[in-house]
Batch of 3 targets.
Target 1
Amino acid sequence: MTNFANEHSSRRDLRANASVFMMLLFGITLYASACNLWVPEDSLFYVSTYTITLLGKYLCYALLALSVDVVWGYCGILSLGHGAFFALGGYTMGMYLMRQIGDRGVYGDPLLPDFMVFLNWQELPWFWYGFDHFWVAITATVLVPGTLAFIFGWLAFRSRVAGVYLSIMTQALTYALMLSFFRNEMGFGGNNGLTDFKEVLGFNLQSDAVRVALFLCSALMLGMAYCLSLFIMSSRYGRVIQAIRDAEDRTRFIGFDTDIYKVSLFVYSAILAAIAGALYVPQVGIINPGEFSPLNSIEVVVWVAVGGRGTLYGAIAGALLVNYVKTRFTAIFPDEWLFALGAMFIGVTLFLPQGLVGFFKGKEPLGVRLRNLVKVPR
Amino acid sequence: MMSTCEGPKGPSAAGTRAKYIKIQRGDAVIILIRQLATVFLLLLVCAEAYPNVSTKDDLHAISQQLGSVKLRALPPVVAQLENSGEAALPLLEALLNGGLFTRKSDKRVLIGLRQGDGRYLFSDAITAEILPQVSKSQMKKIVINNRLRGQIRDIIAKVTLTSVETNIRTRAIKNMFNKMTGENILLLRQAREAETEVALITLIDLALAVYDLTNATAKQTRLESLDLMAVSLEPLVFNTLAALLALDPEGNPLETDPEVRAKAQKIYTSMEEEIRFYERLEQFFYGLSLGSVLLLIATGLAITFGVMGVINMAHGELIMIGAYTTYVVQLLMPNNLEYSILVAIPMAFLMSGFVGILIQCSVIRFLHGRPLETLLATFGISLILQQAVRSIFSPLNRQIISPSWLSGSLEINAVFSLTYNRLFILIFALLVFACLQLILKKTSLGLHVRAVSQNRGMAKAMGIRTEWVDAMTFGLGSGIAGIAGVALSQLTNVGPNLGQAYLIDSFMVVVFGGVGNLWGTLVGSFTLGVANKFLEPVTGAVLANIIVLVSIILFIQKRPRGLFPQKGRAAE
């Protein structure tokens, strides 16, 4: 395994990094929120609600990228199925929002969501019970993807499935989930998914204040996840995790039970992804089985790769950057985005194995680094 | 006259020539008259042998009458059509479907076909000459009533039953199955007298037996007809027996004769069993067919992934390139559609192989020993290839015309038939697999490939050009993916997502069978194919797919190296 940009491992450095990151994050989010709520619409400094929602979406993606970086960058587990945890988290939140609609749906049924009435279902399936309470939904957001990650990870890591096999299996997992969520019989709205949400915790989802609150929530969760991950990775536990990445056999021979470390990290990462999904759904207003598609999961990996893995803030920066480029790019050339994305995959793996962070943090002089970029990689 | 003609003593050429010379010298006028007479006679004979020459005129006359007489006078006119035989079929069918018209101006009889846009396309009822400029406003429809319809159907049945084409006769007999009236049975009996094909005679006998069973009163006749029916699997027989064994509302059997009932029950049960058996067989065949598709796709992957250890996420797109090559080849040779697929197979191999070598030399070479990066980079390539195809050929699916020798099916019996394209693909997949085994085991390239995959450093030290071997191996695997694309194009639509749909399945096959083991891939693909198709009727297609996926994931937990793990030095 190659060395990752991890030189800044002393505690003081970490703390400095974290405070810079947090200041940036909250500075920008608070500024944008204030500009949306208190600046008149015709002002130059006004930030539209659309932008707020877009930024909130990016922050959710950043949290998802962070969760992938935790397993990939620090433990060498390339998961091509993190979109599954993200979507599962989204579905738990979607179920809560669906129950909140109550009798304001098209069919006006007080208990059943519209799609169930449409499918002629007579009663609520058992797994929908309790989702009218917010705390149940939140618990499910953590528990359901966490349990899935635990079962999957426990089975996979215990039997030493690693490397590429694991990647393909995670992809198969999300693919299987996508196929099952597409079925109407599953009771999750089939093809159309869950949508037409009205309010969250009694507040209207369309209002500016709620949008800003969701945006701030996303920023808060991202910040907390960043700090927690940074703390975990600099702890003794985190050092074992990195040791597993660099030489798993040796770590095991020293006496660490590597399976437990890997499984627990995988579950932690899945929960982060699920929280990202739960924050994402109220902001975009829809969740459907397309979120499970293997392409989505693999796109997350490219965010992390572009930013630079094994640094946490690299993953966040990569997610924000790539998504911003995507928004701009698809507006100008809607069809060519896949070309750009594909080129990004190839370019980053060939020329920027450490991502942008690796490039800017490199020890050599800038000229040498630039020359290395153009040189045929070996 | 004969005296002038000296009969030749022997069959010598000189004698013949002498005879002609004599004839020329003789009375030329008389010979001319004789020749004329012969020609006339010949013409007469011809007219007898080919009745069409005269019926065409007859038909014309009758059709003129159709257009001019009143509805009440139509039956005798229609009855005359029977004599014209098959030539009258289009006319009769058009009349039956209300598509026969007369032109108001000259009473010419035309067949009108309703087009997609609601307009009519007219053609002459006799010569089938298409008249595009005629519009419906100039026409008057020939109206018929129910009595006439019955009559016309009878005539059509009679005419088709005596057709020279075996297919038409078979269809006519099967049509009779649905309406077993006394008249039809009479027709069938007549047709049986004239029939020469054994298969058709059996079919007619079956129909007669079914009629006898339901209508005859003599017990012996009915038992005999049950005997006849016992050997068949036709749905008609099955339905007749089911109707015979049914109970009336009070729960008493409809059939009063216990002996007949017992026998029918016995036949019905054994038939049910047999049909179920053939259904299983059909499922098995579909499973094998799916397995053969998986095999074709996974063999290429088994080379690049299994032997070289390169995760190629663009494998699906190499398949897609093969399918699009088939499409392009078809566009390039529109006059030889039947054989374009034979050209497409090597072309697809070359095309996909070329793209594969390009990928290997430009990207994968630099990522050696970094499998996760290889996975990401090839995924990027797959996105680019997919979008490229979308830009060049449009995102819509493309239609590929299967050659006629690949369409149709091999009918084993009434309930079991194998479609030719699936059968061919099954054989083709096995052939490709065998060729690949030969290449790997018997050629020097194969030797080098195996050497490099087992110990790269040592192979290099022995003087093997590893870079070149890598490129060739990757090209081979990719070329086989292209061939898989040709096969897939015969089964499904050709679109930009063609390859992606099968990618995860084929990775599963390779992992399930054991990486680096071609035999494992063979067993794995057929196992998965058959398992999938046997689950499908129970759980539905999607759930079957999911169950198979999940069980493979669980299987990998138990045996991480697949069904047939590599042993010895090849294993890491």
Note: The beta strands of chain B are 100-103, 109-114, 120-124, 130-131, 139-141, 409-413, 416-419.
Target 2
Amino acid sequence: MAIDFERTLGVHAQALRLRAQRAELIASNLANADTPNYLARDLDFKSTLAGYAGEGRLAWTAAGHVQPGAARAGEVLFREPTQRSIDGNTVEAEREKVLFAENSVQYSTTLKLLGSRIQGLMTAIRGE
Amino acid sequence: MSLFNVFNISGSALHAQTVRLNTTASNLANAEAASSSVGGTYRARQPVFQTVLYGGGVGDESSAGVGVADIVESEAPLRKEYRPEHPLADEDGYVFLPNVNPVDEFANMISASRSYQSSIEVVDASKQMLLRTLALGE
């Protein structure tokens, strides 16, 4: 019986990719903290992941059909600032730093989960 | 692997903030450089930041670095002082001094070094994340 990596790694492989994309977005926000008219961006992790997993989507039977509600998979959204600055920049550096830290912890968590799945496979392969 | 892009993004931010620090340094260095004419007087200069999109493809809008679009000179009026003993004084005894405001420059300097710091932290955290990814499954 062949090993189904897709099923073994589950949603974690996709989650890892999303976490990396989110790290990139937040790094962009921090890099542009002093750029006039820059709008801070982020992902809605939950709905994006659900979108990838195919949850909560309607059947797509005609070209004119539109998915309701949640953000499309991988769609980048603009952050709603608590206080817009006078140069049109919506980056709040402190908030972004906290979100970056949060995201990297979550990235590590996902890595750990992936790691244990792989460990499980290794154990099964070795049969020890 | 998109995490590698973080190095590009933060690298561009480090460069842009360095340019900003450099202009601040030259503004402060030239704050008292007198001249005998309006045209020959140093004017405070500031970089203008601009978002630089990497990737460029449709749907790949994640990476946005920062670049220096231009360096502009301040339009604020120059200081004109009556110093007839100054070797550079014009025939009426006036010298022109740069429109550098040291308070502005110091505030800019602190802001630039804070932004530089946070970019460094982002690079450091991303490096850790990548190294941990390399060790996956060990």
Note: Chain A has a mean pLDDT of 82.
Target 3
Amino acid sequence: MPSPPKLQEIVDDFASMTREEKIETLIAYSESLPPLPERLKKDRDSMDSVPECMTPVFLRGEKEPDGGMVFHFDIPRESPTVRGLASILASGLNGSTPEEVLSVPADFFMPMNLQEAISQQRINGFIGILAHMKQAAVKLL
Amino acid sequence: MAYVHPEYLVETEWVAARSNDPNVRIIESDEDPLLYPIGHIPGAVQVDWFTTLQHPVRRDFLTKEQFEEVASHLGITNDTTVVFYGDKSNWFACYALWLFQYYGHENVRVMNGGRLKWEKEGRPLVKDVPSYAKTAYRAKEADQSIRAFRDEVLKQSKSKKPLVDVRSPKEYSGELISMPNYPQEGATRGGHIPGAVSIPWAQAVNEADSTFKTPEELRALYEGKGIKSDEEVIAYCRIGERSSLTWFVLKYLLGYPQVKNYDGSWTEWGNLVDAPIEK
């Protein structure tokens, strides 16, 4: 099953970029990750976390009245790679239904060829973040 | 009481004063490779523990010749003072320093506090990537006295000599065997090497600014757990990066004469058939 179109578009964009463009774009994604909404800050402690990740990642998935999901993240600024990966997933999947989020293949990022920019180890962060987004989606089915 | 080899540690202001010093090369070595392109100390170059310093095929470091090539491209001569700094309390800065020492570069320093302290002090970070004239660096034969391999580690364990496990308490106890986000860094078995004492790396640094603790605090920490300078000490973690920070502390700040880093660490030991494990 293919990824939702917005995510697929990002994957295709990355596939055609040079190494330098990938780094710049990843930094831009990391910088554009919206801050956690004020209303969620007070219950950040109860948010779904990614405890096994070395970078503390907090995420909350919500469903809009139209059925589309919105993901909110809180990730420290000193971890731009993880922020960038989360930001790509949020940009690609915000507005998708929980079913669509669950259908994203675990290896959706392979064609992006990110390992030439940030090495395979870091790209695996995608797997953990996506897994937690799917856990949030399951609760909203 | 002072650090035993204080010359291996420099402060941020020392580095700030030497951004343009041709005899000094500042190297950023991070866990997160995007930090350098976002902004780094003026004049600094980047190495990545994986893409720059690891052998492209084998699980090993660069060969001597490959290391010479990397050092030459960074404009480092055999006399250059090389200063390392990075994120995560200088884990990967210490790892890169350890590798430079492995290939015989004596003149190395760690910037106390790393990126965190530099940023907290409001010092400048720039995006310009400098380039330096290529040199003809000549490395020495690898210095095996600072690197432990599995057979020696087994001997160390069997003869009840000091082994320091610097991972988190849950990794030491075996509750946590791998990190799902780091599949290549997993192990099929959890626990620790028999006889190893648990001294998490983070206990050696101050959380607020990533600087190293005082000589008194460090001595009390390690000696208090029975890790003394009269015997050879081997440190390990999961992939050998956190333990290179502990190696730096024991070897230079406390001046232990014989300290080795077991870079195979738990990703090797926890997958090794027939290796003894304690839980």
Note: Chain A touches chain B through 26 residues (CB under 8 Å).
